[in-house]
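Technical note accompanying the year-one report. For the benefit of new consortium partners, we illustrate the data format agreed upon in the data management plan: each record pairs a sequence with a structure-token string. No post-processing was applied to the example shown here.
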Amino acid sequence: MTHGDGIRVAVLDDYQGVAEGLADWGSLGPGVAVDFLSEPVPRAEAAARLAPYAVLCLMRERMPLDAELIAALPALQLVVFTGGRNPSVDSAALQARGITVCNTRNGEGGIATAELTVALMLACARNLPREFANMAGGRWQDSVGESLEGRTLGLVGLGRIGARVAAVGRALGLRVTAWSPNLTPERAEAGGATLVPREALFSESDVVSLHMVLAPSTRGIVGAAEIARMRRGAILINTSRGPLIDEAALLAALAEGRIRAGLDVFDREPLPADHPLRAVPNAVLTPHLGYVTQSTYRMFYEDTVEAIAAWRRGAPVRVVTP
């Protein structure tokens, strides 16, 4: 089916205000009006704010699109989300409405996330945010960091990203161990790590880094018991998904000064301005930057424009089915 003119497109959660300049949206033609929304749309306002749009362009999982919201959007005909998968989108509800769903290529998110993981490890080990603040405030050094060589890095999950982190860890002189529910000794060795029991990973590691997909079976996989096993002063890194960690247990351990943390992901995003995690001195926080790079964003938005154009021609590309 070929779609006529007068189509309204919303590009959601363009936090940095860069989407318009990273792809040729004008190539969609004068009959397509594109709005770039940099501020998150509150859930309570979503139905009213998004009702006029035939096309919604989602950045990863920033804007959940559930069945209730889908039912409240009568004009919606096409959803394009960036990346290969999006569990925050109810694809079955969209399919039931006859709404086309397309995705984009993944970009360099795996590479970039692995790099950020290592950056957070180093920032925690060397107290970098604190010393950045000292220099900006006219002060000099007042902390003593530590090197990572000879320490143990425990990876919870050893997929594509975990294996890249393992390689960098070995280059830094870390002993690398790993655990996941289905990991075998052979696959661990192929990924550059030694398989250890789950309990041993938490009790023996100086740095624990999470690289698991969020699913019902992995939600809260790091709870109070796992955190209690960690060595005093150990570092917990999460660049995967916030709900992998029991937030209350993490906050308690950080408040007591038992561990340190480097976190790029959170239970609620954007993280509220008054969230207690923002106030603990032994946590290094970044605002879900793992996949956020120029080349990835360019691919995301170019693929999004391509998907809209193909859909308008009646030959959609990269169609997602439930």
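Partners are asked to follow this layout when depositing records. The longest helix spans residues 294-312.
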